Structure prediction request, 645 residues.
Amino acid sequence: MLLHALARIGQTLAVLFVVSVASFGLLKLAPGDPVQIMLGSEYSPEAYESLVAEMGLDQPFLVQYAHWALNFVQGDWGTSFVAHTDIFTHAFKEALPVTLTLASFSLAFAILIGVPLGVLSAVKKDTAFDAGAAVFALTGTAFPSFLLGILLIWFFGVKLGLFPVMGYVSPWQDFWTGIYHIILPSLTLSTYFIAMITRLTRATLIEVLEQPYIAAARARGEPNWRVIWVHGVRNIAMPLVTILGLQLGVLLQGTVLTETVFNLPGIGQMLTSAVLGREYAVVQAGVMMTATLFIGVNLLVDLSYPLLDPRLRDRK
Amino acid sequence: MTGTPTLTPAPQPLLIVDDLSVHRGAAKILDRVKLTVEKGETLALVGESGAGKSTIATALMGLLSGAKVEGHAELEGTGDLLSLPSKQLVKLRGQRISMIFQDAGAALNPAYTVGRQLISALRRNLGLSRRDARARAVDLFSSVGINDAEARLSAFPHQLSGGMQQRVMVAIALACNPDLLLADEPTSALDVTIQAQIVRLILSQTRARGASCIFVLHDLALASQSCDRIVVLYAGQVVECGPARDVLERHRHPYTRQLKSCVLEIGRQDLEAPEGTVPSHDSMPPGCRFATRCPRALPRCAAEMPPLTPASDDRDGASDHAFACWNPE
Prediction:
């Protein structure tokens, strides 16, 4: 158990190392000489040499990488050329919380709507309800989120005036205003996931409900709701958590479009403008944050398996 | 007038199953099955796989899904099990009728400890407090031969052997002292050495509680040794039924003979297994369903369905031995 956990943590660190090397390499491969950019159009060769030495660019690649990684871990992510702000403050303290809020609200919507809808579909298999949920799910997966976002803005924001059409207020500072601002973007982002989780829950639960232990639970007088929610849903937790972890990558990609449509100052928007403005250091920070998030969540997913399935607790 | 012998009124049977039929699509899996279970009696359902033995047990529990069930099953003091509203049926399950399954490993939820599965049944069905239910669970585990019962309560199903898992199932099934226990081939997933132990355990535990038991088996010899009465099923129909001794020793139906003779015995040379296969459910012949495999078949057998006829081998007139055959042995 413990050995397994340590092995998984080791693997995770290895993956993070590879990602960070690739991410560091990105900066090296980027077109344009950063020293030239910093010095402007006119400079002496001596000034050039001294700046190269100052920035450590004359060092071997690995030394430069180690230097960069050490700074990165300490929160020294460099300064933005365009905004002349500290990248760490901008990316980690300002943009990341926005994206995290958006992603967690979307995930919450996906679970709170998708799981009950899937359970009902499985229980009412082959009825009109099931067919309706299937149509909803298919539409939800096929509908592009930016179009849905615009439609939601037009209908709820402009026509009904129920929700603000853009902008972000942190729910940690002003809870209700924050929720109010995040509902439309989260709904937009989560539609795909609600649909996917509905289908996944339905399929896995139908299979579980055919297991002998479900019949056995009924045979000893368990009421229907307990059979489904206690004996059934408990046994689909593992595939559900696995898929949620893996789909987090898709969710993080989705934030780019959603943040643009709703004008939320998150990582997605930061990455978009950084790519357009060729600010590779900012892109690098964004890549490192999203990669760490994705890898970290999937590590948690893997470590949660023994909690979800007791049969895995005894493995060596 | 006073000289008339006072007959003790025959006790009411616990369960009367009348004309139980089960259709799945076009296939008729059970065809007008009749059987009676007396109080405290052990009834064996015997036949090849696909004969409908397990379907009877599952239908009586109301656990058959995707099938049409017809007929009646009167449980003493309750009414027709087959037309009971599901809420009432849920209350009966575990309390008056309970079931032991073929594969105990699959019938226990892998996500919860065996103790939790037993204790939750005790608490809900008997309204016991947590502490009382736990004490009762320890007693039950000990009574079904689980050593170190206290510690075993917190074991997960996968941590127990097949025999232990089935003992847990027996404990759960008997937890609320049901009147009727349905044992659906409870030993088919177990090692041969443990099979006899589990059969003996189930029978002794049901008898000790005065409960009745329907034992689904495919072994006629085991059925005759351990059960009071036997019902032989073939392709969804009752072909012979009666007291265990009569069915085994004075069987009239050729299929019962074949079932009997396919039991291996050391030194026997005349081993004969039934040849051919059971006709499929959607192409049942109009006559006797066994006719195609029967060595004694007459032209009539293929055309007309033989009715269940009382056998005249009664020694004291009390036997209800009956068979369905045009050319009985």
